[in-house]
Amino acid sequence: EADYRDVQKELAETESKEQANFQKMMELTKDQKEELTTMVEDTATLLETRLTLVEKEAASINATTEDIKKINTLISETKEASEKETLKKMETSLEERITAYEEVTTNYNELADLQQNLYNMLIDESADITVIQAQVQDVNMHNEVVKKSVEKFNEATARVNEVKEEVFTSLQKE
Question: CA-CA distance, 41 to 118, in Å (whole number)?
Answer without folding.
Answer: 12
